[in-house]
Batch of 2 targets.
Target 1
Amino acid sequence: MSLPIYATFGQRVWYYAFRVICAIIFIFLITPILVVIPLSFNAENFFTFTPEMLRLDPEGYSLKHYQDFFTNAEWQRSFKNSLIIAPIATVIAVTLGTLAAIGLSQSHVPFRRAIMAILISPMIVPLIISATGMFFFYSKIGNFMEGTMGLDKNFVGYVKVILAHSVLGIPFVIITVTATLVGFDRSLTRAAASMGANPVTTFFKVQMPLILPGVISGGLFAFITSFDEVVVVLFVGSASQKTLPWQMFTGLREQISPTILAVATILVVISILLLTMVELLRRRSERLRGLSPG
Amino acid sequence: MSDTASKAPVLAADGTPLKRSLNRALRVQKMRALALIAPLLLFVMLSFIMPIGDMLFRSVENQIVENTLPNATQELAKWDGSSEDLPPEPVFRALYHDMFLAAELKRHTRLGSRLNYESTGMSSLFRQSGRKLDDAGKDYRKLFLVVDEAWGDGATWQSVMGGAEGATPDAALVKAQKSQIYRLDGEAPRGQLDFAPSQDVSALLPLTAREYTAFAIVTSLIKKDDLAATKPFESLFVALADDLSTADLSGYDGPGADNLRALQASGLPTPNYTEIFGEMDKDWVNIETWRTIQIHAEPYTSGYFLNAVDMQKTPTGVEMQPEDRQVLITLFVRTMIMSLTIMFSCILLGYPIAWLLANLPMRQANVLMILVLLPFWTSLLVRTSAWKVMLQQQGVINDVLVWIGLVADDNRLILINNETGTIIAMTHILLPFMILPMYSVMQTINPTYLRAAKSLGATNWTAFWRVYFPQSIPGIGAGSILVFILSIGYYITPEIVGGTKGVFISNRIAYHISSSLNWGLAAALGTILLVAVLILYWAYDKIVGIDNVKLG
């Protein structure tokens, strides 16, 4: 990869030119995320760098947009909604998804391909189409729950959004957990059974600890999917289920407030944490399965 | 000895034949696997597959005309739409009473909006007619009250329609009217109706009995009012005048028989429904209005799909929409072209990066990989807002360009609210989806091939183009299909940075769902998009294999 000593002039030029091109593309990839962070400390209500900011004058910076985020009732409510909806959706997706992934990894499953296609479909179908279908169908479910079962309107709204978000998270759980199960050594469960453990004990004591990294990273994907999702919640939810991305979306479309940038920065920090976590889990999982860390 | 062993079935430890024992074990295993999968499968079926099915159904479903105007559509079916004559009187007669009931339940405007998608002006025609329907009824009520004040009283009507004490109630009529109102209102009328028209009356005054039953259901079951104390619908006076013009009352001796005879003798004019509608709005005596209603009266329609490709149903067959309403094909084409542009930009930008990552030593590659994965993991809304900030006229990119001197301050580039904005932002958002599959393919390419080519005298370019590039094509294919599929269904980013020119078909779907409320068309557009995506995925599965989808 490094430049050989005998490289011609043309080769040298190309070598460095290529590196410069790659650097520019990396800058393209990362700049939007980096630009948001300093702008969120802007003392003015602008979306651009003020002269004070460019001079690195402390006057030009402030935490007022963060303050706004933490004190504004609307932002706080949407943040709270996200923190209610995403974890519940994740728990549903992980529980059902892990069970099904274990079922799918058995050696004789009839219609495996068809079942797999159905379970993966929420990831394949564009969100706008899922949202359209859910908009029609969930309003019927909602009417049924409100009218026939007499449930609270607000509660039904949450149920609808949580159902929608958990089904969107399921493919990620299925994919990560089945991938972990590919390297799973079946003789371990047989060994456990031969020593007298019942299937439930075997599952929790032997299988679960080994596939846990896959389960957790599937869960993280499901969480991010729900936490970041806006199209479906826009169609299925009502104003009282407004989530953080929804609030950002309306913010971007209507009243543009730099508070969005503060929220964006917080979300970038969260995503860095999650990315680190997934990476650590992946390495741990590969170590557990005896594959070389890559 | 060996003979008997080969003939007798091999036995398992418990004495059953081994074959059966194995089969049983296999069956148990299958059942266990299915039992583990079943809860999730049911969940996905209920919360995902059924909604999609509902959308597919809605793209052809068109029962609103039949549900709102059940009797009128039945009569209208007998009319020859290609003739130059208006529909006959029975059609107008049925329409009057259907429409009156629909207007009482505020359902006529929905039908108006539905037909307005096909022919402009229908919405206001239905809305205004709904208000004017009372007028004709009020005229008849005046005439009735002149004959006998008692006709203004709900109790009189109830006793007349109920028939004599102990008369056989017409339960079939009540049931039929209940189901008609259920279909009209979308909700079943709950509870027990404590009124039923007598069979004698419904034989004598069929129209009045039918409409009065509907009135009774609406009043006591939906509005929860006292039937005897409520003023009857204006349409009932019209209906009774209509019935009395032909009814033979000579043999009737039920309650109010004298009252009815007095009315009949008073010389009420027979209602002329065609005239009533003609006075309401001259569009009702326009044959085009009726042709539109007749064409769109069928319960299942291809109309939404035709609309989705800028066509429409007309009395003379399928035609293109008028020029000014042809927007959707343009939008489909634009969605395709922009998705292709985004795909090619992603290939162009992704290929060098994937190559670099695949050829650098592991440690450096891992560090650079973070720069690819961080945007991948960052919230979509964050990236979109970042682009909104950067692309503005007073935004970061323009500022930098002005500062460098590439662009004059008074001539800043317009990068947002047009195609450019959408393409830049979406290329950035989808680039990781291109880099990751390319990278995983390039990692498997053996570098010795390249060295072999060079040692045989190939130039750097030839070696790359003839040896390396062909081996990396599967990665390009996988990434391209993935990026293309993702981009044709994108909604959020075009909505925010695309303005009016940079939007996709998905934005149109959202518009029809939330603003224009043309749900059938939204469903048809969604179905077309879904089919396109599924075909692409099928191709993706053939080329790459769905199991090779990797995350992160």
Note: Chain A touches chain B through 92 residues (CB under 8 Å).
Target 2
Amino acid sequence: MPANPPYVFSAMRAYLTRRLVHSIIIIIGISMVVFIISRITGDPVSIMVDFTTPQEDREIIRKELGLDKPIPVQYLIFLMNAAKGDFGNSIRYEEPALDLVFQRIPATLRLLVFTIGWSLILAIPIGIISALKRNSLFDLMGMAFTFIGQSIPSFWLGIMMIMIVGVRFQLLPISGYGDGDIAHIIMPAITLGAFGMASFARITRSSMLAVLDSDYIQTARAKGLRETFVVIKHALRNALIPIVTILGLQIAGLLGGAVITEQIFAYPGVGWLAVQSIYNRDFPVIQAIVMVVSIGVVATNFLIDIIYTLIDPRIRYDKGK
Amino acid sequence: MKAASYRNVRFIMLGAIILFAMAMGFGVPIAECKTRVVVAQGVDPTKLDPDMHRENPTLNVILHIYDALLERDRDATIKPDLAESWEVIDDTTVEFKLRKGITFSNGEPFNAEVVKYNFERVAGLLPDAKKTLNARDYKSIKGVNIIDEHTVRIVTNYPDPLLLAYVSEKYIVPIEYTKKDNFESLANKPVGTGPYVLKSWVKGSELILTAKKDYWKGAPKIDEVVFRPIPEDATRIAELKVGAVDIIANLKPDNIQEVEVKENLAVKYAPSARVAMVFMNSDMDKLKDTRVRQAVNYALDVPSLIKNVMGGNAYRVSTVAPKSFVGWDHQEKFYNYDPQKAKKLLAEAGYPNGFEATILTPRGRYLNDVAACEAIAGMLNAVGIKTKVEAVEFGVFAKRTQAHDMPEFMYAAWGNSTFDVWDTIKTCVRSGAMFSWYKNEKVDENIDKAAQTIDPQKHSEYLVNALREMWADPPFGFLYQQRDIYGVNKRLVWEPRSDEDIDLYGAYLK
């Protein structure tokens, strides 16, 4: 492979620097929105203390939490501490908020890996076969299947799975984490992944269709290459590019979906912690979760941008600058 | 050629699935031969330091690990526990004789020194100790005097009629263990004298307690008690149905049937300590007249509310003291549903055409709160009080009512952990109190006298007097006490309590 000319690297560097600056601005913007929302939705002290706690005692707590200071000052303090990884103590658990989030991250990551794994394993073959056997019965059924996957709300799917797989046939444990065994993750992963699987299958199908019609595929076939080789090596490889893009977008969506899925299956991840903290108005934890998750999403998208430029030599970000 | 390509795709797919499954690792279930009971609650416990938590789900774990000097039996009567007996010496002194030969699970002895240390901690008298979350309950305590190794006296700054109730809620922790790191370890590695010890706690997943075979009251009959947090109602019920969970609390009336039809399950009930009432704002001119507030009570068809809105899951209360409370009136009288009389009283008070009003309620805080308010508004409308319902989120509700901002009416189901009605009326009825919109000198006098009397008989008499006065000149529309509903696996012999505690010492498997 010939070495890239130096201008490509400098253009890449400029592009990546620009993206990095954007990312930082996005994260600061998110921090501001989260901070403001968690302040305007009500008084955390009223949730923390007993209903009958007198006003004087409330004021003491408010002072301890720094809630008596003006909002912009509170925000600056929050930002400075957050930069040091200090989001304050959880109101409910009285432990550092960030520690609570980090305790829950492995479970959520595991769920995400499993979810993306099964949905790709199922979606790509469905997409390929549907594209190859366009308008066949398989294609029709495959697309109907993915249509259902895309239209079913995940909370409904989760509860139906609990009722049918868990209660009626008792094939899988209904909720919890167990010992981290595979049985406990199957239903949450299916619930969480149904939508993404359907999108992946549809994208694979349509991009395969586009690729299969192109001249170079005709050329490859004309050269007398085996069909498998043509499909896997020539067509799929090119069709994968939009799938990688969608994957990046899906991660943010999956994290959102994890909130509902984890709650339904009592799966001890970040999503469940988020719901619980919102109920308890545990704002240090809410802030820590949103910051950690948004940094994660922004970083993933940043990484995917880099991967994108690497796997597809046609894409040059200096164009149209 | 095409067929070959599908075979390949299939092969790749299968291979990938197998590899993936192997990578994630299959779990192997472990066989259990011990008796084990699983309790599902909505949330995980917070801290197992008995003085540093605020929630019932945490308390349910704590009460298996620790003991208190006194305990309540199922009828809420106070009984001896770590204290063999107690004696009221004078209005500000109570003496406790302690049980001998009891040790904590780490071997430390239980004695007078321990009791002094514990009450000094919650009263804020222990130097260097952080303020505890239950400190407000013990603020009357002036000090603890050790008479001998097994006798202590708690001295208060003023007569405190709730002292014994709060002593029964004070779980005793050891000295040496907590001293070495200023109570830090207690939160995750509790040490108590109770029937169970903590075996393991995977936060967010499960907490396991194991029975202490040498427990001083006798070994528990259930070897392991497991607490699992499951936030969704539907999921908790599903786990109960398949037998993975034995007890679930807060079953909704709508789900009773679903549980009842299963052969292996039972629905159990306990009267709750939560009493629902319609607060009336007598600071407003239209509600100043006693007759108007009586009219409201005649307009309310409480039996119908209990039957149709609460699905039978409530018990009528004549005032605000249910039967299990100190201050309950044996000769209780009820307002009979009488809309004609209500209209007449309104007319006499100068409102022949009624008036317009609003009833404020939190949304989803209490059992069927909004539905109850809609029914109440309908009943008031029928006598001419044109009432509209204003349902708000609890945070808003709390903020408004704490700032004394209430429309004509407000619906609340008032909790009371002390089972002493004085605790309710000192906050909701005594004039000038935080949640009082009422003024009646005779009631105030009786509340104040009850406050200074710790003799149970006399204390109770003052309360009965206050409640009778309140019945005649009502501060509230009197309603009902809620009923707690549990789903239970029939293999377990266990009865719920009216203080919402889930106590498995004494329970056993069939």
Note: The radius of gyration of chain A is 24 Å.
